[in-house]
Amino acid sequence: MTERIEQIYDRAVAEEKLKDGTKYERLTAVVFKILDDSGLVIHDVKLSGDGKEASHQIDVSASYHHMQRRVLVECKDYGTESVGIDVIRDFNGALIQLQPAQGIVVTTTRFTSGACAYARDEGIALGRQRGRLAAVVAAA
Question: pTM of this prediction?
Answer without folding.
Answer: 0.82
